[in-house]
Amino acid sequence: MSKLLAVGTVAFDAIETPFGKTAKILGGSGTFVGLAASQFGIQTGIVSVVGGDFPEAYLTMMNDKGINTDGIEIIKTGKTFFWSGRYHNDMNSRDTLITELNVLEDFKPVVPERFKDAKIVMLGNLHPLVQASVLDQMTVKPTLIVLDTMNFWMNIALEELHAVLKRVDVITINDEEARQLSGEYSLVNAAKKIHEMGPKYVVIKKGEHGALLFNEGNMFFAPALPLAEVFDPTGAGDTFAGGFCGYLAKTEDISFENMKNAIIYGSNLASFCVEKFGTERMQDLTTSEVTNRLQAFKELTQFDIKIS
Amino acid sequence: MSKLLAVGTVAFDAIETPFGKTAKILGGSGTFVGLAASQFGIQTGIVSVVGGDFPEAYLTMMNDKGINTDGIEIIKTGKTFFWSGRYHNDMNSRDTLITELNVLEDFKPVVPERFKDAKIVMLGNLHPLVQASVLDQMTVKPTLIVLDTMNFWMNIALEELHAVLKRVDVITINDEEARQLSGEYSLVNAAKKIHEMGPKYVVIKKGEHGALLFNEGNMFFAPALPLAEVFDPTGAGDTFAGGFCGYLAKTEDISFENMKNAIIYGSNLASFCVEKFGTERMQDLTTSEVTNRLQAFKELTQFDIKIS
Protein backbone atom coordinates (compact mmCIF):
# COMPACT_ATOMS: atom_id res chain seq x y z
CA MET A 1 0.00 0.00 0.00
CA SER A 2 1.26 3.42 -1.00
CA LYS A 3 0.58 6.79 0.57
CA LEU A 4 -1.74 9.14 -1.31
CA LEU A 5 -1.33 12.88 -1.10
CA ALA A 6 -4.21 15.01 -2.37
CA VAL A 7 -4.37 18.77 -2.67
CA GLY A 8 -7.81 20.27 -3.11
CA THR A 9 -10.47 22.42 -1.55
CA VAL A 10 -12.12 21.72 1.79
CA ALA A 11 -15.15 23.91 1.75
CA PHE A 12 -18.77 24.74 2.46
CA ASP A 13 -21.36 24.04 -0.20
CA ALA A 14 -25.01 25.06 -0.35
CA ILE A 15 -26.86 23.07 -2.95
CA GLU A 16 -30.25 23.25 -4.60
CA THR A 17 -31.57 20.38 -6.69
CA PRO A 18 -35.11 19.47 -7.81
CA PHE A 19 -35.19 17.25 -4.69
CA GLY A 20 -34.51 19.98 -2.14
CA LYS A 21 -31.92 22.40 -0.82
CA THR A 22 -29.26 22.30 1.85
CA ALA A 23 -27.84 24.74 4.36
CA LYS A 24 -24.04 25.20 4.33
CA ILE A 25 -22.73 21.65 4.32
CA LEU A 26 -19.31 20.05 4.00
CA GLY A 27 -17.91 20.02 0.46
CA GLY A 28 -14.77 20.63 -1.57
CA SER A 29 -12.73 18.56 -4.00
CA GLY A 30 -10.17 17.55 -1.38
CA THR A 31 -12.93 16.33 0.91
CA PHE A 32 -14.54 14.14 -1.76
CA VAL A 33 -11.17 12.76 -2.90
CA GLY A 34 -10.27 11.93 0.70
CA LEU A 35 -13.59 10.23 1.46
CA ALA A 36 -13.39 8.13 -1.71
CA ALA A 37 -9.77 7.14 -1.04
CA SER A 38 -10.64 6.23 2.55
CA GLN A 39 -12.49 3.18 1.17
CA PHE A 40 -9.14 1.54 0.43
CA GLY A 41 -7.57 1.59 3.90
CA ILE A 42 -4.56 3.52 2.63
CA GLN A 43 -2.84 6.50 4.21
CA THR A 44 -4.34 9.59 2.60
CA GLY A 45 -3.17 13.10 3.41
CA ILE A 46 -5.18 16.17 2.39
CA VAL A 47 -3.48 19.52 1.75
CA SER A 48 -5.90 22.41 1.91
CA VAL A 49 -6.92 25.51 3.84
CA VAL A 50 -10.01 26.42 5.88
CA GLY A 51 -11.13 29.35 8.04
CA GLY A 52 -11.86 29.70 11.75
CA ASP A 53 -15.51 28.98 10.95
CA PHE A 54 -14.76 25.38 9.90
CA PRO A 55 -16.23 22.92 12.43
CA GLU A 56 -13.66 20.73 14.16
CA ALA A 57 -16.22 17.89 13.95
CA TYR A 58 -15.62 17.69 10.18
CA LEU A 59 -11.89 17.22 10.73
CA THR A 60 -12.59 14.61 13.40
CA MET A 61 -14.90 12.76 10.99
CA MET A 62 -12.11 12.69 8.40
CA ASN A 63 -9.55 11.53 10.96
CA ASP A 64 -11.91 8.77 12.07
CA LYS A 65 -11.89 7.56 8.48
CA GLY A 66 -8.10 7.47 8.49
CA ILE A 67 -7.69 10.69 6.52
CA ASN A 68 -4.69 12.72 7.67
CA THR A 69 -5.63 16.40 8.01
CA ASP A 70 -2.24 17.77 9.19
CA GLY A 71 -1.95 19.46 5.80
CA ILE A 72 -5.22 21.36 6.21
CA GLU A 73 -4.13 24.79 7.39
CA ILE A 74 -6.62 26.58 9.64
CA ILE A 75 -6.61 30.35 9.32
CA LYS A 76 -8.48 31.38 12.47
CA THR A 77 -9.22 34.91 11.30
CA GLY A 78 -10.39 33.83 7.88
CA LYS A 79 -13.50 32.26 6.40
CA THR A 80 -13.76 28.93 4.62
CA PHE A 81 -14.24 28.79 0.84
CA PHE A 82 -17.97 28.75 0.07
CA TRP A 83 -19.76 27.67 -3.09
CA SER A 84 -23.46 27.66 -3.75
CA GLY A 85 -25.17 26.26 -6.83
CA ARG A 86 -28.52 25.27 -8.26
CA TYR A 87 -28.94 22.25 -10.52
CA HIS A 88 -31.41 22.27 -13.38
CA ASN A 89 -34.07 19.60 -13.79
CA ASP A 90 -31.87 17.40 -15.97
CA MET A 91 -29.06 17.47 -13.32
CA ASN A 92 -26.51 17.88 -16.10
CA SER A 93 -26.20 21.63 -15.88
CA ARG A 94 -26.06 24.02 -12.96
CA ASP A 95 -25.87 27.70 -12.13
CA THR A 96 -23.33 28.95 -9.65
CA LEU A 97 -25.14 31.26 -7.23
CA ILE A 98 -22.30 32.24 -4.91
CA THR A 99 -18.51 31.78 -4.95
CA GLU A 100 -16.65 33.19 -1.94
CA LEU A 101 -12.97 32.28 -2.24
CA ASN A 102 -12.13 33.60 1.25
CA VAL A 103 -9.01 31.83 2.63
CA LEU A 104 -8.51 30.07 -0.71
CA GLU A 105 -7.50 33.37 -2.31
CA ASP A 106 -3.98 33.27 -0.91
CA PHE A 107 -3.66 29.52 -0.53
CA LYS A 108 -0.04 28.40 -0.16
CA PRO A 109 -0.15 24.62 0.17
CA VAL A 110 2.25 23.10 2.69
CA VAL A 111 2.89 19.37 2.34
CA PRO A 112 3.32 17.68 5.74
CA GLU A 113 6.72 16.06 6.23
CA ARG A 114 5.35 12.52 6.35
CA PHE A 115 3.61 12.89 2.98
CA LYS A 116 6.59 14.31 1.07
CA ASP A 117 7.41 10.77 -0.05
CA ALA A 118 3.82 9.85 -1.11
CA LYS A 119 3.91 7.57 -4.12
CA ILE A 120 0.62 8.82 -5.56
CA VAL A 121 -0.13 12.53 -5.77
CA MET A 122 -3.53 13.93 -6.76
CA LEU A 123 -3.46 17.58 -7.77
CA GLY A 124 -7.07 18.77 -7.44
CA ASN A 125 -8.63 21.46 -9.55
CA LEU A 126 -6.71 24.57 -8.39
CA HIS A 127 -4.45 27.21 -9.95
CA PRO A 128 -1.66 25.45 -11.90
CA LEU A 129 0.95 27.32 -9.83
CA VAL A 130 -0.56 25.92 -6.63
CA GLN A 131 -0.47 22.45 -8.19
CA ALA A 132 3.17 22.94 -9.19
CA SER A 133 4.18 24.14 -5.73
CA VAL A 134 2.95 20.84 -4.26
CA LEU A 135 5.18 18.91 -6.66
CA ASP A 136 8.11 21.17 -5.74
CA GLN A 137 7.79 20.08 -2.09
CA MET A 138 8.04 16.33 -2.75
CA THR A 139 11.36 14.90 -1.58
CA VAL A 140 10.92 11.59 -3.39
CA LYS A 141 9.72 11.49 -6.99
CA PRO A 142 6.13 10.14 -6.92
CA THR A 143 5.27 7.00 -8.88
CA LEU A 144 2.17 8.64 -10.30
CA ILE A 145 1.02 12.24 -10.46
CA VAL A 146 -2.63 12.82 -11.33
CA LEU A 147 -3.93 16.28 -12.20
CA ASP A 148 -7.47 17.56 -12.44
CA THR A 149 -8.23 20.89 -14.05
CA MET A 150 -11.03 22.89 -15.68
CA ASN A 151 -11.76 25.48 -18.36
CA PHE A 152 -11.39 28.34 -15.82
CA TRP A 153 -7.62 27.71 -15.59
CA MET A 154 -7.31 27.31 -19.36
CA ASN A 155 -8.82 30.76 -19.70
CA ILE A 156 -6.71 32.62 -17.14
CA ALA A 157 -3.49 30.55 -16.69
CA LEU A 158 -2.96 28.49 -19.82
CA GLU A 159 0.82 28.90 -19.86
CA GLU A 160 1.17 27.81 -16.23
CA LEU A 161 -1.18 24.91 -16.91
CA HIS A 162 0.98 23.74 -19.82
CA ALA A 163 4.06 23.98 -17.59
CA VAL A 164 2.60 21.76 -14.86
CA LEU A 165 1.10 19.35 -17.43
CA LYS A 166 4.65 18.47 -18.50
CA ARG A 167 5.23 17.12 -15.00
CA VAL A 168 2.18 14.89 -14.60
CA ASP A 169 1.37 11.31 -15.61
CA VAL A 170 -2.43 11.38 -15.66
CA ILE A 171 -4.84 14.18 -16.41
CA THR A 172 -8.54 13.95 -15.57
CA ILE A 173 -10.68 16.41 -17.48
CA ASN A 174 -14.25 16.54 -18.76
CA ASP A 175 -15.18 16.19 -22.43
CA GLU A 176 -15.86 19.87 -23.13
CA GLU A 177 -12.63 20.87 -21.41
CA ALA A 178 -10.65 18.24 -23.34
CA ARG A 179 -12.03 19.78 -26.53
CA GLN A 180 -11.10 23.28 -25.38
CA LEU A 181 -7.58 22.31 -24.30
CA SER A 182 -6.82 20.38 -27.50
CA GLY A 183 -8.85 22.25 -30.11
CA GLU A 184 -10.12 18.86 -31.32
CA TYR A 185 -13.76 17.79 -31.34
CA SER A 186 -13.15 14.04 -31.50
CA LEU A 187 -12.20 12.78 -28.04
CA VAL A 188 -9.77 10.29 -29.60
CA ASN A 189 -7.92 13.13 -31.30
CA ALA A 190 -8.23 15.36 -28.22
CA ALA A 191 -6.61 12.67 -26.06
CA LYS A 192 -3.79 12.34 -28.58
CA LYS A 193 -3.03 16.07 -28.46
CA ILE A 194 -3.23 16.25 -24.67
CA HIS A 195 -0.95 13.23 -24.47
CA GLU A 196 1.61 15.29 -26.43
CA MET A 197 1.37 18.03 -23.77
CA GLY A 198 2.82 15.67 -21.16
CA PRO A 199 0.38 13.22 -19.53
CA LYS A 200 0.90 9.60 -20.61
CA TYR A 201 -2.65 8.84 -19.48
CA VAL A 202 -5.68 10.94 -20.35
CA VAL A 203 -8.95 10.36 -18.50
CA ILE A 204 -11.94 12.10 -20.08
CA LYS A 205 -14.95 12.35 -17.77
CA LYS A 206 -18.34 12.43 -19.48
CA GLY A 207 -20.58 12.62 -16.40
CA GLU A 208 -23.64 10.38 -16.82
CA HIS A 209 -22.05 9.07 -20.04
CA GLY A 210 -19.09 7.50 -18.23
CA ALA A 211 -15.34 7.99 -18.56
CA LEU A 212 -12.65 7.14 -21.09
CA LEU A 213 -9.03 6.25 -20.35
CA PHE A 214 -6.46 6.75 -23.13
CA ASN A 215 -2.83 5.61 -23.19
CA GLU A 216 -0.71 5.41 -26.33
CA GLY A 217 -3.36 4.00 -28.63
CA ASN A 218 -5.06 1.95 -25.93
CA MET A 219 -8.55 2.88 -24.79
CA PHE A 220 -10.79 1.82 -21.95
CA PHE A 221 -14.32 2.91 -21.17
CA ALA A 222 -16.22 2.79 -17.88
CA PRO A 223 -19.91 3.65 -17.95
CA ALA A 224 -21.62 5.55 -15.19
CA LEU A 225 -24.06 3.23 -13.46
CA PRO A 226 -27.54 4.10 -14.76
CA LEU A 227 -29.54 5.21 -11.71
CA ALA A 228 -33.25 5.69 -11.17
CA GLU A 229 -32.56 8.98 -9.40
CA VAL A 230 -29.53 11.24 -9.27
CA PHE A 231 -30.08 13.20 -6.09
CA ASP A 232 -27.08 15.56 -6.13
CA PRO A 233 -24.16 15.33 -8.62
CA THR A 234 -21.88 17.58 -6.50
CA GLY A 235 -18.51 15.92 -5.91
CA ALA A 236 -19.05 12.99 -8.28
CA GLY A 237 -16.04 13.91 -10.42
CA ASP A 238 -13.79 14.29 -7.37
CA THR A 239 -15.09 11.04 -5.91
CA PHE A 240 -14.29 9.37 -9.23
CA ALA A 241 -10.73 10.73 -9.09
CA GLY A 242 -10.36 9.75 -5.42
CA GLY A 243 -11.50 6.21 -6.18
CA PHE A 244 -9.10 6.01 -9.12
CA CYS A 245 -6.10 7.20 -7.05
CA GLY A 246 -7.09 5.25 -3.95
CA TYR A 247 -7.32 1.98 -5.84
CA LEU A 248 -3.93 2.54 -7.47
CA ALA A 249 -2.38 3.44 -4.11
CA LYS A 250 -3.78 0.29 -2.56
CA THR A 251 -2.76 -2.08 -5.36
CA GLU A 252 0.59 -0.39 -6.17
CA ASP A 253 0.21 -1.36 -9.81
CA ILE A 254 0.06 1.41 -12.38
CA SER A 255 -0.16 -0.80 -15.47
CA PHE A 256 -2.84 0.05 -18.03
CA GLU A 257 -4.71 -3.15 -17.15
CA ASN A 258 -4.89 -2.16 -13.50
CA MET A 259 -5.85 1.41 -14.37
CA LYS A 260 -8.93 -0.11 -16.01
CA ASN A 261 -9.90 -1.48 -12.60
CA ALA A 262 -9.15 1.89 -11.00
CA ILE A 263 -11.49 3.63 -13.47
CA ILE A 264 -14.24 1.15 -12.64
CA TYR A 265 -13.69 1.76 -8.91
CA GLY A 266 -13.88 5.50 -9.52
CA SER A 267 -17.15 5.11 -11.39
CA ASN A 268 -18.44 2.75 -8.71
CA LEU A 269 -17.80 5.22 -5.88
CA ALA A 270 -19.16 8.15 -7.89
CA SER A 271 -22.42 6.24 -8.33
CA PHE A 272 -22.88 6.32 -4.55
CA CYS A 273 -21.84 9.95 -4.16
CA VAL A 274 -24.82 11.22 -6.18
CA GLU A 275 -27.39 9.30 -4.11
CA LYS A 276 -27.55 11.88 -1.31
CA PHE A 277 -26.71 15.53 -0.74
CA GLY A 278 -23.05 16.50 -0.48
CA THR A 279 -20.78 14.05 1.33
CA GLU A 280 -23.63 12.32 3.21
CA ARG A 281 -23.60 9.08 1.25
CA MET A 282 -19.81 8.84 1.17
CA GLN A 283 -19.63 9.25 4.94
CA ASP A 284 -21.78 6.20 5.68
CA LEU A 285 -20.65 4.03 2.75
CA THR A 286 -19.53 0.50 3.67
CA THR A 287 -17.09 -1.85 1.95
CA SER A 288 -19.74 -4.47 1.29
CA GLU A 289 -21.94 -1.91 -0.49
CA VAL A 290 -19.03 -1.05 -2.75
CA THR A 291 -18.26 -4.73 -3.42
CA ASN A 292 -21.89 -5.48 -4.25
CA ARG A 293 -22.07 -2.62 -6.70
CA LEU A 294 -18.89 -3.86 -8.35
CA GLN A 295 -20.95 -6.90 -9.27
CA ALA A 296 -23.54 -4.59 -10.86
CA PHE A 297 -20.76 -3.00 -12.93
CA LYS A 298 -19.66 -6.43 -14.10
CA GLU A 299 -23.18 -7.38 -15.14
CA LEU A 300 -23.57 -4.05 -16.87
CA THR A 301 -20.43 -4.34 -18.99
CA GLN A 302 -19.06 -7.86 -19.24
CA PHE A 303 -19.98 -10.13 -22.15
CA ASP A 304 -18.71 -13.39 -23.51
CA ILE A 305 -18.70 -13.61 -27.28
CA LYS A 306 -17.08 -16.69 -28.73
CA ILE A 307 -15.33 -15.40 -31.83
CA SER A 308 -15.86 -18.04 -34.52
CA MET B 1 -29.99 -20.13 -38.12
CA SER B 2 -33.33 -18.37 -38.25
CA LYS B 3 -34.85 -16.27 -40.97
CA LEU B 4 -34.99 -12.53 -40.42
CA LEU B 5 -37.75 -10.40 -41.87
CA ALA B 6 -37.22 -6.64 -41.86
CA VAL B 7 -39.65 -3.96 -42.92
CA GLY B 8 -38.17 -0.52 -43.52
CA THR B 9 -37.43 2.10 -46.12
CA VAL B 10 -35.28 1.56 -49.20
CA ALA B 11 -34.51 5.03 -50.36
CA PHE B 12 -32.32 7.71 -51.83
CA ASP B 13 -30.31 9.93 -49.49
CA ALA B 14 -28.34 13.08 -50.24
CA ILE B 15 -26.02 13.93 -47.38
CA GLU B 16 -23.88 16.89 -46.40
CA THR B 17 -21.30 16.61 -43.62
CA PRO B 18 -18.27 18.76 -42.79
CA PHE B 19 -16.30 16.25 -44.90
CA GLY B 20 -18.24 16.70 -48.12
CA LYS B 21 -21.54 16.11 -49.83
CA THR B 22 -23.07 13.33 -51.90
CA ALA B 23 -25.41 13.09 -54.87
CA LYS B 24 -28.49 10.89 -54.46
CA ILE B 25 -27.10 7.67 -53.02
CA LEU B 26 -28.58 4.45 -51.67
CA GLY B 27 -30.08 4.76 -48.19
CA GLY B 28 -33.07 3.79 -46.07
CA SER B 29 -33.56 1.94 -42.80
CA GLY B 30 -34.39 -1.38 -44.51
CA THR B 31 -31.23 -1.13 -46.59
CA PHE B 32 -28.98 -0.57 -43.58
CA VAL B 33 -30.70 -3.29 -41.55
CA GLY B 34 -30.28 -5.72 -44.47
CA LEU B 35 -26.62 -4.90 -45.03
CA ALA B 36 -25.81 -5.29 -41.34
CA ALA B 37 -27.71 -8.59 -41.09
CA SER B 38 -25.96 -9.89 -44.21
CA GLN B 39 -22.78 -10.17 -42.11
CA PHE B 40 -24.26 -13.22 -40.38
CA GLY B 41 -24.94 -15.46 -43.38
CA ILE B 42 -28.61 -15.73 -42.46
CA GLN B 43 -31.65 -15.49 -44.74
CA THR B 44 -32.82 -11.88 -44.55
CA GLY B 45 -35.89 -10.64 -46.37
CA ILE B 46 -36.61 -6.92 -46.80
CA VAL B 47 -40.16 -5.62 -47.14
CA SER B 48 -40.29 -2.16 -48.66
CA VAL B 49 -41.33 -0.13 -51.70
CA VAL B 50 -39.37 1.80 -54.34
CA GLY B 51 -40.20 3.71 -57.53
CA GLY B 52 -39.36 3.10 -61.17
CA ASP B 53 -36.30 5.35 -60.71
CA PHE B 54 -34.63 2.86 -58.35
CA PRO B 55 -31.56 1.31 -60.05
CA GLU B 56 -31.72 -2.45 -60.47
CA ALA B 57 -28.01 -2.53 -59.65
CA TYR B 58 -28.85 -1.73 -56.02
CA LEU B 59 -31.21 -4.72 -55.82
CA THR B 60 -28.56 -6.91 -57.48
CA MET B 61 -25.98 -5.75 -54.94
CA MET B 62 -28.35 -6.72 -52.10
CA ASN B 63 -29.10 -10.11 -53.71
CA ASP B 64 -25.35 -10.73 -54.08
CA LYS B 65 -25.08 -10.28 -50.34
CA GLY B 66 -27.80 -12.87 -49.77
CA ILE B 67 -30.52 -10.33 -49.02
CA ASN B 68 -33.91 -11.39 -50.39
CA THR B 69 -35.62 -8.47 -52.14
CA ASP B 70 -38.84 -10.21 -53.22
CA GLY B 71 -40.67 -8.11 -50.65
CA ILE B 72 -39.48 -4.84 -52.18
CA GLU B 73 -42.39 -3.72 -54.33
CA ILE B 74 -41.43 -1.69 -57.41
CA ILE B 75 -44.01 0.91 -58.46
CA LYS B 76 -42.86 1.70 -61.99
CA THR B 77 -44.84 4.94 -62.25
CA GLY B 78 -43.74 6.22 -58.86
CA LYS B 79 -40.61 7.79 -57.39
CA THR B 80 -38.47 6.39 -54.59
CA PHE B 81 -38.54 7.95 -51.11
CA PHE B 82 -35.90 10.69 -50.93
CA TRP B 83 -34.31 12.29 -47.87
CA SER B 84 -31.68 14.98 -47.79
CA GLY B 85 -29.93 16.27 -44.69
CA ARG B 86 -27.03 18.36 -43.49
CA TYR B 87 -25.03 17.43 -40.38
CA HIS B 88 -23.63 20.11 -38.10
CA ASN B 89 -19.98 20.25 -37.17
CA ASP B 90 -20.45 18.12 -34.07
CA MET B 91 -22.16 15.37 -36.15
CA ASN B 92 -24.71 14.94 -33.34
CA SER B 93 -27.39 17.13 -34.84
CA ARG B 94 -28.65 17.58 -38.35
CA ASP B 95 -31.12 19.58 -40.41
CA THR B 96 -33.47 17.84 -42.78
CA LEU B 97 -33.34 19.71 -46.09
CA ILE B 98 -35.76 17.63 -48.17
CA THR B 99 -38.23 14.83 -47.43
CA GLU B 100 -40.13 13.47 -50.44
CA LEU B 101 -42.25 10.52 -49.33
CA ASN B 102 -43.25 9.58 -52.91
CA VAL B 103 -44.17 5.85 -53.11
CA LEU B 104 -43.84 5.54 -49.34
CA GLU B 105 -46.98 7.63 -48.87
CA ASP B 106 -49.32 4.70 -49.65
CA PHE B 107 -46.99 1.90 -48.61
CA LYS B 108 -48.88 -1.38 -48.06
CA PRO B 109 -46.23 -3.90 -47.03
CA VAL B 110 -46.60 -7.40 -48.47
CA VAL B 111 -44.64 -10.14 -46.72
CA PRO B 112 -43.36 -12.75 -49.23
CA GLU B 113 -44.71 -16.26 -48.63
CA ARG B 114 -41.32 -17.71 -47.67
CA PHE B 115 -40.78 -15.12 -44.94
CA LYS B 116 -44.18 -15.49 -43.26
CA ASP B 117 -42.58 -17.95 -40.85
CA ALA B 118 -39.50 -15.82 -40.06
CA LYS B 119 -38.46 -16.31 -36.45
CA ILE B 120 -37.11 -12.79 -36.02
CA VAL B 121 -39.06 -9.76 -37.26
CA MET B 122 -37.62 -6.25 -37.32
CA LEU B 123 -40.25 -3.52 -37.67
CA GLY B 124 -38.36 -0.48 -38.91
CA ASN B 125 -39.29 3.09 -38.11
CA LEU B 126 -42.60 3.44 -40.02
CA HIS B 127 -46.23 4.25 -39.18
CA PRO B 128 -47.39 1.90 -36.37
CA LEU B 129 -50.25 0.67 -38.59
CA VAL B 130 -47.75 -0.37 -41.26
CA GLN B 131 -45.73 -2.15 -38.58
CA ALA B 132 -48.87 -3.91 -37.30
CA SER B 133 -49.90 -5.01 -40.80
CA VAL B 134 -46.61 -6.87 -41.16
CA LEU B 135 -47.30 -8.78 -37.95
CA ASP B 136 -50.82 -9.58 -39.19
CA GLN B 137 -49.34 -11.36 -42.19
CA MET B 138 -47.12 -13.76 -40.25
CA THR B 139 -48.44 -17.34 -40.36
CA VAL B 140 -46.17 -18.56 -37.56
CA LYS B 141 -45.72 -16.58 -34.36
CA PRO B 142 -42.22 -15.09 -34.46
CA THR B 143 -39.77 -15.89 -31.66
CA LEU B 144 -38.79 -12.26 -31.37
CA ILE B 145 -40.38 -9.07 -32.67
CA VAL B 146 -38.20 -5.95 -32.59
CA LEU B 147 -39.66 -2.51 -33.18
CA ASP B 148 -37.96 0.78 -33.91
CA THR B 149 -39.85 4.05 -33.71
CA MET B 150 -39.35 7.79 -33.31
CA ASN B 151 -40.91 10.94 -31.86
CA PHE B 152 -42.72 11.67 -35.15
CA TRP B 153 -45.05 8.69 -34.61
CA MET B 154 -45.53 9.55 -30.94
CA ASN B 155 -46.77 12.93 -32.06
CA ILE B 156 -49.19 11.84 -34.79
CA ALA B 157 -50.12 8.21 -34.02
CA LEU B 158 -49.58 7.58 -30.32
CA GLU B 159 -52.64 5.36 -29.87
CA GLU B 160 -51.65 3.12 -32.81
CA LEU B 161 -48.09 3.02 -31.48
CA HIS B 162 -49.31 1.84 -28.07
CA ALA B 163 -51.41 -0.85 -29.78
CA VAL B 164 -48.48 -2.30 -31.73
CA LEU B 165 -46.13 -1.99 -28.73
CA LYS B 166 -48.30 -4.54 -26.90
CA ARG B 167 -47.35 -7.06 -29.59
CA VAL B 168 -43.56 -6.62 -29.61
CA ASP B 169 -40.74 -8.10 -27.52
CA VAL B 170 -38.01 -5.51 -28.04
CA ILE B 171 -38.19 -1.78 -28.68
CA THR B 172 -35.21 0.22 -29.90
CA ILE B 173 -35.54 3.93 -29.29
CA ASN B 174 -33.20 6.84 -28.67
CA ASP B 175 -32.80 8.54 -25.30
CA GLU B 176 -34.84 11.65 -26.02
CA GLU B 177 -37.63 9.56 -27.51
CA ALA B 178 -37.60 7.20 -24.53
CA ARG B 179 -38.07 10.25 -22.32
CA GLN B 180 -40.92 11.54 -24.48
CA LEU B 181 -42.69 8.18 -24.64
CA SER B 182 -42.43 7.53 -20.89
CA GLY B 183 -42.54 11.02 -19.43
CA GLU B 184 -39.53 10.07 -17.29
CA TYR B 185 -36.16 11.79 -17.41
CA SER B 186 -34.12 8.98 -15.86
CA LEU B 187 -33.51 6.29 -18.47
CA VAL B 188 -33.86 3.60 -15.81
CA ASN B 189 -37.35 4.84 -14.97
CA ALA B 190 -38.16 5.42 -18.66
CA ALA B 191 -37.26 1.81 -19.48
CA LYS B 192 -39.47 0.59 -16.62
CA LYS B 193 -42.50 2.51 -17.94
CA ILE B 194 -41.92 1.42 -21.54
CA HIS B 195 -41.57 -2.14 -20.32
CA GLU B 196 -45.10 -1.81 -18.87
CA MET B 197 -46.35 -0.78 -22.33
CA GLY B 198 -45.47 -4.21 -23.72
CA PRO B 199 -41.83 -4.81 -24.70
CA LYS B 200 -39.96 -7.14 -22.35
CA TYR B 201 -36.70 -5.67 -23.62
CA VAL B 202 -35.98 -1.97 -24.01
CA VAL B 203 -32.93 -0.85 -25.98
CA ILE B 204 -32.12 2.84 -25.55
CA LYS B 205 -29.74 4.19 -28.19
CA LYS B 206 -27.55 7.11 -27.11
CA GLY B 207 -25.60 7.62 -30.35
CA GLU B 208 -21.94 8.33 -29.61
CA HIS B 209 -22.68 7.54 -25.95
CA GLY B 210 -23.55 3.91 -26.65
CA ALA B 211 -26.68 1.86 -25.99
CA LEU B 212 -28.46 0.42 -22.96
CA LEU B 213 -30.42 -2.83 -22.82
CA PHE B 214 -33.02 -3.23 -20.06
CA ASN B 215 -34.95 -6.36 -19.09
CA GLU B 216 -36.82 -6.81 -15.81
CA GLY B 217 -34.25 -5.14 -13.57
CA ASN B 218 -31.26 -6.32 -15.60
CA MET B 219 -29.16 -3.80 -17.46
CA PHE B 220 -26.40 -4.02 -20.03
CA PHE B 221 -24.43 -1.23 -21.62
CA ALA B 222 -22.48 -1.23 -24.89
CA PRO B 223 -20.36 1.82 -25.65
CA ALA B 224 -19.98 3.22 -29.12
CA LEU B 225 -16.40 2.71 -30.25
CA PRO B 226 -14.62 6.07 -29.85
CA LEU B 227 -13.45 7.04 -33.35
CA ALA B 228 -10.96 9.63 -34.54
CA GLU B 229 -13.42 10.74 -37.23
CA VAL B 230 -17.11 10.14 -37.73
CA PHE B 231 -17.55 10.67 -41.45
CA ASP B 232 -21.34 10.25 -41.81
CA PRO B 233 -23.68 9.06 -39.03
CA THR B 234 -26.55 8.25 -41.45
CA GLY B 235 -27.83 4.71 -40.94
CA ALA B 236 -25.82 4.00 -37.79
CA GLY B 237 -28.95 3.35 -35.69
CA ASP B 238 -30.43 1.03 -38.33
CA THR B 239 -27.11 -0.77 -38.72
CA PHE B 240 -27.05 -1.22 -34.95
CA ALA B 241 -30.55 -2.74 -35.06
CA GLY B 242 -29.64 -4.93 -38.03
CA GLY B 243 -26.57 -6.23 -36.26
CA PHE B 244 -28.62 -6.91 -33.13
CA CYS B 245 -31.31 -8.86 -35.03
CA GLY B 246 -28.84 -10.58 -37.33
CA TYR B 247 -26.77 -11.91 -34.47
CA LEU B 248 -29.87 -13.23 -32.68
CA ALA B 249 -31.12 -14.86 -35.90
CA LYS B 250 -27.77 -16.54 -36.41
CA THR B 251 -27.34 -17.79 -32.84
CA GLU B 252 -31.05 -18.62 -32.21
CA ASP B 253 -30.63 -17.72 -28.55
CA ILE B 254 -32.74 -14.89 -27.19
CA SER B 255 -31.55 -15.10 -23.58
CA PHE B 256 -30.51 -11.85 -21.90
CA GLU B 257 -26.88 -13.03 -21.84
CA ASN B 258 -26.89 -13.55 -25.60
CA MET B 259 -28.67 -10.25 -26.18
CA LYS B 260 -25.64 -8.63 -24.57
CA ASN B 261 -23.54 -10.08 -27.38
CA ALA B 262 -26.10 -8.93 -29.93
CA ILE B 263 -25.90 -5.37 -28.60
CA ILE B 264 -22.11 -5.47 -28.87
CA TYR B 265 -22.38 -6.74 -32.45
CA GLY B 266 -24.81 -3.94 -33.26
CA SER B 267 -22.43 -1.37 -31.85
CA ASN B 268 -19.53 -3.01 -33.68
CA LEU B 269 -21.25 -2.82 -37.08
CA ALA B 270 -22.47 0.75 -36.44
CA SER B 271 -18.87 1.81 -35.82
CA PHE B 272 -18.05 0.81 -39.41
CA CYS B 273 -21.16 2.37 -40.90
CA VAL B 274 -20.10 5.90 -39.91
CA GLU B 275 -16.65 5.63 -41.50
CA LYS B 276 -17.84 6.44 -45.03
CA PHE B 277 -20.81 8.08 -46.74
CA GLY B 278 -24.11 6.18 -46.80
CA THR B 279 -23.88 2.42 -47.28
CA GLU B 280 -20.39 2.52 -48.81
CA ARG B 281 -18.52 1.07 -45.86
CA MET B 282 -21.16 -1.59 -45.15
CA GLN B 283 -21.03 -2.76 -48.75
CA ASP B 284 -17.31 -3.61 -48.67
CA LEU B 285 -17.12 -4.76 -45.04
CA THR B 286 -15.47 -8.16 -44.47
CA THR B 287 -15.96 -10.71 -41.71
CA SER B 288 -12.36 -10.44 -40.56
CA GLU B 289 -12.70 -6.67 -40.12
CA VAL B 290 -15.73 -7.24 -37.91
CA THR B 291 -13.95 -9.92 -35.89
CA ASN B 292 -10.90 -7.72 -35.39
CA ARG B 293 -13.02 -4.86 -34.15
CA LEU B 294 -14.77 -7.18 -31.72
CA GLN B 295 -11.37 -7.50 -30.11
CA ALA B 296 -11.23 -3.69 -29.81
CA PHE B 297 -14.61 -3.76 -28.06
CA LYS B 298 -13.30 -6.34 -25.61
CA GLU B 299 -10.23 -4.28 -24.81
CA LEU B 300 -12.42 -1.19 -24.45
CA THR B 301 -14.83 -2.73 -21.93
CA GLN B 302 -13.53 -5.88 -20.27
CA PHE B 303 -11.75 -5.73 -16.91
CA ASP B 304 -10.72 -8.23 -14.31
CA ILE B 305 -11.11 -7.04 -10.75
CA LYS B 306 -10.47 -9.63 -8.10
CA ILE B 307 -13.03 -8.84 -5.43
CA SER B 308 -11.26 -9.26 -2.08
TrEMBL record, chains A, B:
It holds the Pfam family PfkB. GO terms for cellular component: cytosol. Residues 5-281 form the Carbohydrate kinase PfkB domain. InterPro entries: PfkB_dom, Ribokinase-like. GO terms for molecular function: kinase activity. It comes from the Bacteria. Keywords: Kinase, Transferase. Coiled coil: none annotated. PANTHER family: RIBOKINASE (PTHR10584:SF166), SUGAR KINASE (PTHR10584). This is Sugar kinase. It comes from Polaribacter gangjinensis.
